[in-house]
Amino acid sequence: MMQQRLNGLKSRSDESRLQAAKDLQHYVSTELREASAEQYTSFMDELNHHIFEMVSSSDANEKKGGIMAIVALIGIDNGNTTKMSRFANYLRNLLPSNDQVVMQMASKAMGRLALTGGTFTADYVEFEVKRALEWLGGDRNEGRRHAAVLVLKELALNAPTFFFQQIQPFFENISNAVRDPKQAIREGAVEALQACLVILAQRETKEIQQRPIWYTQIYSEAKRGFEDTLNTKEKGVVLTKDDKAHGSLLIMNELIRSASIEGERAKQELEEIYCDQTQTQFSLDDLGINSPKSKFALQTGYQHQRSLALLGGGGMTETICHSKVCKDFMDDHFEEVCKLVLRYKATRNSSIQQMLLTILPRLAAFQPKRFVKKYLRETMDHLCFALKRERERSSAFKAIGLIAIAVRQDIEKHRGPVFEQVKVLLPMKDLGHKRQKAVTVDPMVFACVAMMSRAIGPKISKEVKDLLEPMLSVGLSPALTACLRDLAHQVPQLKKSIQDGLLKMLSTILMNKPPRHPGAPRSATPTLTPSASSHSLFDTLDVTSTVLALRTLGTFDFDGHLLAHGNLVRHCADTFLASEHKDIRMEAVRTCSRLLSPSLHPMVMPHAPLHHANISASSTQVVSEVLSKMLMVGITDPDSDIRYCVLSSLDERFDAHLAQAENLSALFVALNDEEFEIREHAICTIGRLSNLNPAYIMPSLRKTLIQILTELEYSGVGRNKEQSARMLGHLVSNAPRLIRPYMEPILKILTELEYSGVGRNKEQSARMLGHLVSNAPRLIRPYMEPILKALIPKLKDQDPNVVISVLAAIGEHAQVSGIEMSKWLNELCPIILDMLQDASLNNKREIALWTLGQLVESTGYVVEPYRKYPNLLEVLLNFLKTEQAPGVRREAIRVLGLLGALDPYKHKLNQTGGLLVGGNSAKDSTDNEAADTSTSEMLVTMGSVQLEEFYPAVAVSALMRIVRDSSLSSHHTMVIQAVTFIFKSLGMKCVTYLSQIMPSFLNVIRTCDSSFREFVLQQLGVLISIVKQHIRNYLDEIFGLIKQYWILNSPMQTTIILLVEQIVTALGGEFKPCSLHRCALETLDRLSESLDLTDFASRIIHPIMRTLDSCPDLRGTAMDTLCSLVFQLGKQYSTFIPTVHKSPFLLDWENEVLSRRQKAGRGNLADDSATNAAIEAAS
């Protein structure tokens, strides 16, 4: 398992490395938590060793994989200072590097480490910033300098509070990097400068407003770069005039960016629409983006304060942050900046030209009126000239569009040359079809047209009308779709033409023929390629264009009349929901749900437009057909992402249709899907529908509830119990009427919280309580007191995960109980205040802060806490001083506001009066008595049993007490002999005492010296010969010891072989390797004879299909199981036939059998009954 993930991390493919890192993150945060502390430590030690080898490797791909693994682990157990220090050292050793991508990834990882480092952050950031500044200020070393600017940028983004303390030395040294001969270093330095300017803007004070020293400093540095007399401070470094000017333009660009917020918003919007649609980038940031499935995880108040996203915050370098100081400063220097920038419009240097095309739109957006008055004509002349140069053409179109948005109607007089150039780049109307296909148009051309339409409005209808046909002839693209959407909105008179043209294009791509309007004769709509069948067309369709066509069809505004073209909607459902390409199926699901929306029944859309009230019977029929096909995909598609997408697309608007019996049966199949997130969403949907069709839903839902409660009570797997708790929470939220009669057994199960010795069980029970309280407050209110009595003692649990879950549950209880929580305040507040001051675990502090806010808000306990706990104010203010996460800082401000205003004089009296945090003294004696009671051990509690059973129990208990006492090790030999004698005397009656003696026996083997270990192993063999197969519960540990102490040619080897012999004799036929996969299939095959597995069909068939395709050794067993399931399901199996038919193995196998039949002749067909049955089952 580990080796597979390591191979993925070392892969040359970015996608494979990312997937391996995600799998590792999921495994460590979920499955590994079920392991024992020893197993967890062993796994992490081995993993850290492999990570060290990867980051130390000479292979760049292995280094990238090591960084990805570090980032995946950063957010898990983030209070572990040892782990953080280790990761910091690993990353530190990667800088500088010859590979720029490795440096970028390492610097991003360092930023994430600073973000989640807790108490480790302050020293870490200070050290790294000072080291980076030393590299900048020292003699020029290209690698170190580049690494320094990357690290400074990430630390400024992720730890701004600590970085701000080093702001002055940063400004003193950053100019060295801005004046570096290498362009990449100059650009990296300015990115770090941008992050610093954001920090300044967020921390502007009156003093800074009066004395903007840093803006003055960097502006003066930029001006020096425009002077020919500038000399570099570094020896041996030669800067060209263009390098100096480029560095200065970079600084000017950042100053204008910080001063102009409107221009930045327009630029971001344009780039999001036209620049990023076709880019697929695998980066560290992807690790922090939860899959769409996570949208339906339970959302509670305390979870809003916590984010499991390790690397969320992609795009932080584009944070829009307006600085009033910088705006005022640049207002005074606007004219000078414009003149300095336009001075370089004639230069031939490509870097400077690109900077001009970037900074000119920002200047126009900063001061539109002044820019129009003096510089617009000169700027537009330059940009129109740049449109004729291929290298700058794309950036020039982008710049013109942004300037148009900034100056609005003033761009009108300059539109002529721009549209002339657009016409040149678009295909002419009279060109042939082949020539049109070959034309490729830059996306920025469409962006410029769209921006011009926003600026001028309907006045450009003539130009747009002439361009419309050539634009549509180019072919579908994301940029064209976005442009047409803008044009349809800004130029209403052309909306119908745009809709018809686009719909014709989409119909041609998706159906290979133009759309046929209702009532038109069929002969009026010729097929473009009549010789091609729909299947061959489907095979030859380009995946990207099909996905884009489907997305456009679903998102473009066709005025809600698209269902009039019912054939197009049906075609999408029939053809693309069954595509072999995942991306096409995914987009087809989304498109179908959007196309059906205008024709949904108004009973579930009370505020729908008027056209919803007159839904035709044909539209209703289309909705019914397409919805049925979507639900079939939702339970039969082999890809879990597609199945989830179906359920997430069918929201409340579809409830009237989903509540029909035939659709509900599909939802109940999804309720037993193999993926938990799908089951989770299915139960929410069914619970929501229970009010619309209770007669059909309630009986099956009641069975599901009993299944969940059984899983909660008896499952030995913590993850299953956690998932059951979440399912129960959803059920309570969506079907409270169903839950009400079952409140007593639910709370009975929760008593595990009070008595369980397993931290994971306590944690899950507390989380379940929180979910129940959050989702069903009225149902839970009568049980508040017993629940709180169970919760509060667990706030002192040693397991931090238990404490976090308990705190969260108490916070939810406070929201429900209101003023009733007042009687618990004296007990809760001191504990919470202690946790607020515990810096060892950030998550616990955050949840404690949120819980305190919940208590204060619910009980009205204001001002008084300041008097009773004088250091509370200081603790809360420390959150604002040191905490990096904005969410936590906001929560601290919220709690301060809830607590109310405090009289400074009274607060000073409280502090000097020595009133310290108290409240625990009243409980001390009680706690001690409880501790004493728990340590006093009952010898045996056996009731009125016979003496022949009582005496052995007393003897075994006494002997085990001696074995557990290491100070009595000299007596252990006699104790072992005595236990063996007792077992021989009792025979099979001794099985009762195995649970008492085996843990101690095995522990002695681990801890004793080698000579005594051999004796204990001999006696263990004797015990196994007595108890026979009853030893099976301890075989894992026994074989673990055998593996540990198996040493070739050692004296103990013979003893171990004899022990194995005794195990073989005791177990008989059970002593054999067990294939879990095969056993699972055979068990399902056997169960199908006596149990109804209909509800679990989806959960069984999908794994069987994967087994048939990927495990040749298990195909026979899998086919047997599939056939048994087919015979049980009967007609209901027809739903899965299309999915089964797609199996490559079954297709090859069926073809082989049919060919064998043809060779054998018709006379032998009747004898091949087994083959006939198998083919019928598979078909």
Number of helices: 65
CATH level-1 class of the domain at 741-914: Mainly Alpha
Computed over alpha carbons, the radius of gyration is 36 Å
Q: Are there runs of 5+ residues with pLDDT below 50, and where?
A: 277-283, 288-317, 431-436, 522-541, 603-613, 914-945, 1162-1171
For the largest beta-sheet, the strand count, sense and barrel status come to: none
Binned strand content = under 5%
How far apart are the first and last residues' alpha carbons, in Å? 36 Å
CATH topology of the domain at 741-914: Leucine-rich Repeat Variant
CATH superfamily of the domain at 741-914: Leucine-rich Repeat Variant
The appropriate CATH architecture of the domain at 741-914 is Alpha Horseshoe
Helix- and strand-based class?
mainly alpha
Helix content bin: 55-70%
Shape: globular
Question: What does the average pLDDT come to?
Answer: 78
Write a structural description.
The chain is mainly α. Among the domains are: 73 residues, no CATH class; 143 residues; 59 residues, no CATH class; 174 residues, Leucine-rich Repeat Variant; 130 residues, Serine Threonine Protein Phosphatase 5, Tetratricopeptide repeat; 96 residues. Helices cover 69% and strands 0% of the residues. It is built from 65 helices and no strands. α10 packs antiparallel against α11, α19 crosses α20 and α27 runs antiparallel to α28. The chain is globular.
